[in-house]
């Protein structure tokens, strides 16, 4: 029976004394050393149980992934600069250049012009129409300049511009229907020719295109200026 005010159990051990894990050897750690390692915990509450640790210590002991990539989506204003392979030292300038170049390429318009000295179009119209229809729509020519058709040539999907300066039609220009065009008169009547102007869309970064379709026969070389 103890008289110092401390209660004991049946084995004579104090009930208020700190308990230790059975794996720890007695005499290896003193109470002072335990309090030094965890000064904010009293010796009565200290046990070798991680649940008794402070929240900050448990957060420090929690394993963290190394070099984890962020899954947060980038803002729209920065996606082009981060996605494009530009130098990190000049990312802003390179990103602006990339955007400007892309917008210019989208606005530009390329026109395809064919030239054909058919030497008689009447009997060749069917084969030529089949050849045009076999092409993809985006690969079909916008303008077809014909020489020596002998008469006004016609083609499905195109508008015909002809010149009748001489007895036979020597010049015909076919323009795709969805292409805006203006026919210009040069005032010259000594040689067969046609001048058309393709009007570029307002939003496109392309100037108007002038197409001159002219025919000068072997005996009319002196008329060509």
Automatic annotation (TrEMBL):
Q: Where is this region: Disordered?
A: 1-104
Name the residue ranges with Polar residues bias: 1-22, 83-94
Task: Mark out the compositionally biased spans (Basic and acidic residues).
Answer: 46-62
- Which taxonomic lineage does the organism of this UniProt entry have? Eukaryota, Metazoa, Ecdysozoa, Arthropoda, Chelicerata
Name under which the protein is recorded: Putative tick transposon
Highest taxon in the source lineage: Eukaryota
The biased composition feature labelled Basic residues covers: 95-104
């Amino acid at each position: 029976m103890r008289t110092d005010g401390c209660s004991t159990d049946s084995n004579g051990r104090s009930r208020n004394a700190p308990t230790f894990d059975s794996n720890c050897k007695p005499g290896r750690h003193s109470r002072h050393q335990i309090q030094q390692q965890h000064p904010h915990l009293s010796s009565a509450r200290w046990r070798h149980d991680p649940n008794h640790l402070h929240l900050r210590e448990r957060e420090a002991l929690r394993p963290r992934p190394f070099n984890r990539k962020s899954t947060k989506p980038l803002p729209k204003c920065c996606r082009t600069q981060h996605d494009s392979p530009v130098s990190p030292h000049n990312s802003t300038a390179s990103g602006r250049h990339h955007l400007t170049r892309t917008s210019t390429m989208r606005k530009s318009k390329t026109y395809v012009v064919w030239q054909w000295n058919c030497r008689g179009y009447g009997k060749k119209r069917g084969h030529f129409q089949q050849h045009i229809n076999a092409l993809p729509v985006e690969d079909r020519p916008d303008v077809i300049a014909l020489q020596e058709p002998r008469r006004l040539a016609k083609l499905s999907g195109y508008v015909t511009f002809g010149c009748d300066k001489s007895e036979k039609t020597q010049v015909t220009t076919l323009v795709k229907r969805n292409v805006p065009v203006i026919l210009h008169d040069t005032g010259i009547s000594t040689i067969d020719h046609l001048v058309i102007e393709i009007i570029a869309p307002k939003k496109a970064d392309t100037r108007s295109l002038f197409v001159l379709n002219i025919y000068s026969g072997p005996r009319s070389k002196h008329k060509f200026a």
